[in-house]
UniProtKB/TrEMBL annotation:
Gene source species: Sylvia atricapilla (blackcap)
Record-given protein name: EFCB1 protein
GO MF term (any one): calcium ion binding
Domain spans labelled EF-hand: 66-101, 102-137
Lineage: Eukaryota, Metazoa, Chordata, Craniata, Vertebrata
Gene behind the chain: Efcab1
Keyword tags: Calcium, Metal-binding, Repeat
Organism domain of life: Eukaryota
Listed transmembrane segments: none
Length: 206
């Protein structure tokens, strides 16, 4: 929808404060891109935002993200109001974390992407689903799922092993294969490569 010059200035100022990783000119560019994407979207949101399809296409073309499960989860982390529509505020603030977030912000974002059912834990089943969709499986493999299960066990062992000296942080007391955010955070702080342990959900440096 058309916006007055004063309204646009207020929006830019507000988003520059809330997104914090972008300057004013960058926020203006992202708002312009948002308007372009809204024009490309279906009209069901009356110009307030764009839908999942446009979002996925944009992340695919801009960042080469192709995993359907990951893209759906990234959409869910952006769509904080859970209404199926990405608003301008959700767009700019979501990109601020995706592109320039601190390690803390990216840990929370990645954990939310991997926590498929939103219960505050990454279960063994969720790990399996994420890894199964992100790994390349050779056609000749007779039991491709076994390889994924082995990888899940390996990641769980790696993440759990960091808590042997601090059991109060370890949520997986009964070894049921669940990781809490505290588990995930501790492991990532010790080995940053584990940030995207269950699938690529951040753009690469390029």
């Amino acid at each position: 929808a058309a916006m007055s010059r004063k309204g646009l200035k207020l929006l830019v100022d507000s988003l520059t404060r809330s997104a914090k990783h972008f300057n004013k000119s960058e926020v203006e560019c992202l708002i312009n891109l948002f308007d372009t994407l809204v024009a490309r979207s279906s009209s069901q949101f009356a110009g307030a935002g764009f839908d999942r399809t446009v979002f996925r296409d944009t992340l695919h073309s801009a960042f080469g993200m192709t995993d359907d499960v990951v893209l759906d989860r990234v959409f869910s982390t952006f769509d904080r109001s859970n209404d199926g529509c990405i608003t301008v505020v959700e767009w700019v603030e979501g990109l601020a974390v995706l592109l320039r977030g601190t390690l803390e912000e990216k840990m929370k974002y990645c954990f939310a992407v991997y926590d498929l059912n939103g219960d505050g834990y990454i279960s063994r089943e969720e790990m399996f689903q994420m890894l199964k969709n992100s790994l390349l499986i050779q056609p000749a493999d007779e039991e491709p799922d076994e390889g994924v299960k082995d990888l899940v066990d390996l990641v769980l062992k790696k993440m759990a092993s960091t808590y042997l000296l601090v059991p109060f942080l370890l949520q997986d007391y009964d070894h049921d294969g669940k990781l809490s955010f505290a588990d995930f955070e501790k492991a990532v702080r010790e080995e940053k490569l584990l940030l995207e342990a269950f699938g690529p959900c951040l753009p690469d440096i390029k």
